[in-house]
Structure formats: structure tokens, C-alpha cells
Amino acid sequence: MAHRPDTLEHAPLGRDSAYPEQYDAGLLYPIPRAANRAPLGIDDDKLPFVGEDEWHAFEVSWLNGRGKPIVAVARFRLPANSPNLIESKSWKLYLNSLNQTRFASREDVQRTLLRDLAAAAGGSVSVELLGVDDSELVPQRLPGECLDDLDIDVSDYTPSAAHLAVGEVIVEETLYSHLLKSNCPVTGQPDWGSVLIRYKGPKIDREGLLRYLIGYRQHQDFHEHCVEHIFTDLMQLAKPEELLVLARYVRRGGLDISPWRATPGLTPPSPLRLARQ
User: Fold this and answer.
1) Which end of the chain, N or C, is more open, meaning fewer C-beta atoms within 10 Å of its C-beta?
2) Known catalytic residue: 184?
């Protein structure tokens, strides 16, 4: 794996890129998580959450030993404690570098993906290769209560924890919204998503929570950092005993990204994919 600078200056995102015709693990572009966590007061050596970044890749293909194309859908999971995330366009280019490459077996492809992605992330990853008709890819619905029918006034489209408020009653509930939107920090392109919040603690005012989530509408950041931002703000305000924040972002460029962050002991409903993905 080639050494990369700790910035987006040389990342392929937002640049014209020729699609590779030969397998090239050096296309993967790792980005250290620490720089974006520091402004939120998150210490990489003492993370306040557990979690993963779950990716689905729909443009995965290679050649078998006789030159016949094989197609699959790949599911990748990067742990939140890995030093790096991987820039999405570089991931897309890397996956497409497999298109004209011969592999002896499906297991050989999986081993190659595991090796290359672990090197880029700086830690262990998991890789599954699914058939395009696999039942795990059937769309489902988020559990819990939807906030989107609340009739609210909104005038602030940048994240502000000032919209959040809590009461004294302790509750355990799961809420979600399909109104999440943020923007790519490099290209400014919109990233559409749904967000689920499961918590046990002081009751969070629902109208304020929806205003807060809508506040990401003009915010520029990576999917993973948006989820960590939401988690951090809710923990600081409500101090819940348990908290899970999960975002399911709409597929773009053949990839969808679904980060989640939680207090230890909580895990998301899985497998879970939505119709927009």
C-alpha cells in the first residue's frame, strides 16, 4: 500500500479519473479519522463509542480462470476504531480494477479484498461476497417511530445542538427520519440518507431533534463523521444510558455507506437495507 498524505489534496474524489484496466491495490486512498474527530473532542485512543462503517458495493466483477466474468455484491465492514476511513471514489476505482483480472476462485477474490482493505484501513475488516439475488439484499423498513410527519418550522440548515432539548422522564425508544442530507466535503454533491436513533435516557424533544437532523442539510462532511457528530451531540446533551446512531445513506457511484456508532453493548438491526439504497 502506497503512503498517502493526511489530506484530501491528492484524493481522486472530484477529479477526472481513468478507469483502471489492471488490478491495483494502490488506488485505495486512506484518510485518517483523527483530524475530523478532534473538533468534536473525540480522542482516537479513547473512543466514546463502538461501531462500524458498513459498505455495500454493487459494481463488483472479476474473471474466473477461464476468462468468464463473475458478478457479485460485496459487503464490507470497517470498525470505527480503525485509524483510517477509505475515500469512496478511490474504493470504486479499486473495485473496478478487478474487472479484467483473473482469479482462481471466489475465495481468492475475498482474500485479496481483505488484505488490501485492511492495509488501507490500518486494521481488521470483514468482507462478504453476496449473489445479486441474495435475500439479504431485499429492502426493509427501519424499526421505531418516524419523525417526518411532525409539522415544524425550519430556518436553520447547519448542525446546531441548540435545537436539542430533553425532559425529566426516562424513556427507551427508537426514532428515525428519512430527511437526513449532508454534502460531500470535496465535491459538494448531496448525500441523501436516513438516520435511526435508539436510546435509553431522558426523553428527547422530538421537534427539536428533527430540526437538529435537518440542520445537516448544508453541512459538508463524510458520512462517518456526520454520524459521530450526531452521536457526540446527543451524548453531551442527554447523557443517555444507552445510545445508538445509525445512518443508511443512499447509493452513489455503486456504493452505499451505513455507519453506526453506539455505547458498548448496543448493536444495530442487521442485515438492514432500505429501498433507497
Assistant:
1) N
2) yes
